[in-house]
């Protein structure tokens, strides 16, 4: 019986469980960078016991001493990222380190832009409407994100086109930009096995959705309506089933930013133009 090691980002456990559910003749083990760093010596001793490594390439630089060379076969993994439901979600640096806010590291470009412009929290609320979202280009994100995601998987030899058509038919298939629900990971596992010329044993007994207990960013109702799902202004922090509404989310973001030096705050590189464009619209 073959033994596979799966190393990726926060999708590691869900993907490994989905692979295990569809490949009963293979032993699948998940390992994220945090687990390796907690007990590196123990993990390194086990590396030689695996036949195949399924790894997201960016993870290699996080575990340079993992002795991955002891595994003979390496398969590169893509990850599921998708901004179609959350075009307003951005990441912010504080003194060159990711800034954690009310909902993990997830921030709103509109909220941050309003804060930088000196607009009050109460007045910021008024910018959350379909007209302003349209001016921000938020309704134009979906198709480009779909094409990018499909292309990235095709570049890795995985065909998710037939599966993607079913995602999001009744609800958003992402909890945030980089946290998918379990069904896309289940389908990704099928595509991986197909790419390896192995049979898939699919059923309705899919694994537990472990990312459902992670940070969840709201699907704005106006955005949801434009892509055929029900949205609501509900945000939730990791490990907490109490949701907060838009007004509370904005207030808590403003309160956080007020404790910091504005000069220390900067959006991640890929979001800088977005924030500047929104500031120009305000």
TrEMBL record:
Q: Which residues form the Polysaccharide biosynthesis enzyme WcbI domain?
A: 4-198
Protein name from the UniProt record: Polysaccharide biosynthesis enzyme WcbI domain-containing protein
Q: Which organism is the protein's source?
A: Sphingomonas populi
